[in-house]
Structure formats: structure tokens, C-alpha cells
Amino acid sequence: MRPLIATFLSFVFTLSIGFARKVEEWSYERLFQEADLVMIGSVEGWGSAKTQWSEKIFDKARFEAKKTAFHPRSLLKGEPAFPCTWVLHFSYKKGATPYEDGPNLVSFLKKPVMIEAKSKKEGKVKELKPKRAGKSVVTPPEYLLFLKMGKDGMYEPVSGQLDAALSVRAIFPSDVIKAP
User: Fold this and answer.
1) How far apart, in Å, are the Cα atoms of 51 and each of 8, 24, 54, 157?
2) CA 151 to the chain's CA centroid
3) For the whole model, what pTM was predicted?
4) Rounded Cα–Cα distance for residues 77 and 38 (Å)
5) Predicted local distance difference test score (pLDDT) of residue 7
6) In this structure, which topology does domain 26-178 adopt according to CATH?
7) Distance, CA of 61 to chain centre
């Protein structure tokens, strides 16, 4: 009976791996090498874009194009557009059901947040909960962006739209994290 159960479990495991979406590995070295522009920037504005989802793997009707303007704070590679650099990215449309093993889309916080670490009983396990900071004097996050120039002149994540989140790192200032 044990060999039968072991065979069944290995079959189920192999089957589940076979249906998982493969995601490329993007090390910092690769991101930096393939990027036209690497910068640390802060969100200055945003809007919708007229570009359509071009990846064939997912239904384009579920996604909408957005563009976010970044003010360059620090330049690591390339020449940014001044006074701001526009980045094209996608999000799910309102009401669209996200795919279970879908794309790693990127989103940018438009307002400052406060991250509060609350300890559970016994104080060993901590839980991070983002909170809206409101009108307090909290600094909004900045972003480390690895970008490539698109055909339309707007920048895009170097890892592509399918896994755009791999090209973006949020940098939170220490004044937004409250620990118990």
C-alpha cells in the first residue's frame, strides 16, 4: 500500500509542477546589465495609457495600461527624462478576476503609508500591517527602477510586463516603520 501512495503523491507533485508558470530569474546583475535606465525615483503623477496587453499567455481583456511619472532622486545608469520619467505598466481592470498563477504586475503607492509591526502572543511572531498615513509628516516610498526604453519612448520594466514586479523595488524610509 505504501508504494502505491508514494507513487500517487509523486505523480500529483510532478503534475502540479508541470502546470506552474515558469518565471525567469532576474538577479541584480542581470537587471542592471539589461536596463537602459536604473534610478531611484519618487512617484510624481499617474494616468491611464492606451497601450494593450501584448503578452499572449493571458487574456488582454483583463488588463489595463497605466503610466506613472517618477522624479529621479538618484541615477545609477542611463539618462532619465527630466523633469520626470514615465513608466508604462499594467494592472487588472476593476472587477477582473486575477489569475491564480498570473503575471507579477507592479503597482506604486501614491500616498505615504505607515507600516506597523504588532507582536502576537509571546512576542516571537511579528506581523506587518500597512496603514494609510493620512496627512501626517510621513515620507512616501521611493522606488529602485530597472527600466528599458519602449518603442513608444516610454520606459518599461526591464523584466517585461509579464513579470514587471521583478524590475521594481520599493524603498521605505525608516520613519514609516513602527516596531513594538
Assistant:
1) 46, 24, 9, 15
2) 22
3) 0.75
4) 5
5) 65
6) OB fold (Dihydrolipoamide Acetyltransferase, E2P) (2.40.50)
7) 20
